[in-house]
Write a structure and sequence with these properties.
Layout (H helix, E strand, L loop, with lengths): L1 H28 L15 H9 L19 H11 L2 E5 L3 E6 L7 E2 L17 H9 L19 H11 L23 H9 L19 H12 L1 H14 L3 E8 L22 E3 L8 E6 L5 E8 L9 E4 H5 L9 E7 L2
Helix pairs in contact: 2-7, 3-5, 5-7
């Protein structure tokens, strides 16, 4: 009887421990970030929360995160390496880098010679730069400097992310991954990987602006999206399957027909150089993406007028919008369009 009582007590204890663990885990998963300048509606909130929950990024002493503040090269390197399962520990006499599985030799900060002229073994970011250099992730500039305080740009960030995560990168490319990323540039292969998973947003001309500085929020998002790339790709594919397309033909107006400068049906002044369109049924200010069925090129336009009055066509595009899909000399093209949310 005593044995049965002990077994019962043990079983109850185990159940209580498990329930307590699950409750703690659930509470942790549902927590909100403590930053006063980062509302839950922020587009990169989940990405920042993911890294914060893993002690990879922190906020400031005034309880702000400063999402739009640019990140320098040293800061970005530390965040990316830690995100890719490298963990750093410090003692008074030495700094040791430990991989998730294998430990590397200890580094003495007093005897180490830096690979870069502007990096000292006493700098807080030294172990990250040292490790990244050993892993052939960074090379610095031809003058021997690394410029740790310089803002990191999008091209540099993508390269460091992909190399830190040991991504497969194809160097031989045929097409530009983005309109402003030519295949012959050194960073094109890295953009190609992100483009393949549809992890980056472009403007209406498919420009990505590879040299733009990266903010704290953007870096968090880039890392998070790459980590979750397979899930994101599946979600995007499912969304694509659920999109309802309207098929028909589109023509244009505003080029040599006297419409430029006139008022549209919603009261605006028509400008042939803006990306707008006319529809017989879509509400004003509806944004749509129009695809040329022959080339799959697309342009995003805003509906601000009524038409076309030739019922062979379902859309009248501004001259500039039409030119993004085909030469004006075509007159009309087969298209499909989707309504953008």
């Amino acid at each position: 009887m005593k044995i049965m009582k002990k077994i019962l007590i043990f079983t109850i204890s185990v159940i209580l421990i498990i329930n307590s663990f699950n409750a703690t885990k659930s509470a942790k998963a549902d927590f909100e970030l403590p930053f006063t300048d980062l509302p839950t509606e922020h587009s990169d909130y989940e990405a920042i929360k993911y890294l914060y929950d893993r002690n990879i990024i922190q906020g400031y002493s005034d309880n702000t995160f400063r999402p739009e503040q640019t990140v320098n090269r040293a800061e970005a390197l530390k965040i990316i390496l830690m995100s890719s399962n490298y963990h750093f520990s410090e003692t008074d006499e030495q700094i040791q880098l430990v991989n998730a599985e294998n430990a590397t030799p200890e580094v003495s900060i007093n005897s180490e010679i830096s690979a870069f002229l502007d990096i000292s073994a006493k700098d807080w970011y030294y172990p990250y730069i040292k490790k990244a250099n050993e892993m052939d992730i960074i090379h610095g500039y031809p003058n021997g400097f690394f410029y740790p305080e310089k803002s990191i740009n999008l091209s540099e960030a993508l390269k460091i992310i992909l190399l830190s995560f040991s991504a497969e990168i194809t160097q031989t490319m045929v097409d530009n991954p983005y309109n402003d990323v030519a295949v012959e540039t050194w960073y094109a292969p890295y953009f190609s990987v992100f483009q393949n998973y549809k992890l980056l947003e472009t403007d209406t001309d498919n420009n990505i602006y590879p040299n733009r500085p990266v903010s704290r929020a953007m870096l968090s998002s880039l890392i998070y999206r790459y980590i979750k790339r397979d899930e994101i790709k599946i979600i995007n594919e499912k969304k694509q399957e659920q999109i309802e397309y309207i098929y028909g033909k589109a023509t244009f107006y505003g080029e040599g027909d006297g419409f430029d400068g006139n008022h549209t049906a919603n009261g605006e002044v028509f400008d042939k150089n803006q990306f707008t369109g006319a529809s017989r049924t879509l509400p004003f200010n509806t944004k749509i993406r129009v695809y040329n069925l022959e080339t799959n090129d697309y342009v995003d336009v805003r509906i601000n007028d009524r038409g076309p009055y030739d019922y062979r066509f379902i859309l009248d595009l501004s001259a500039e919008a039409f030119k993004r899909l085909a030469p004006i000399s075509r007159g009309y093209i087969p298209i499909k369009y989707e309504i953008l949310k």
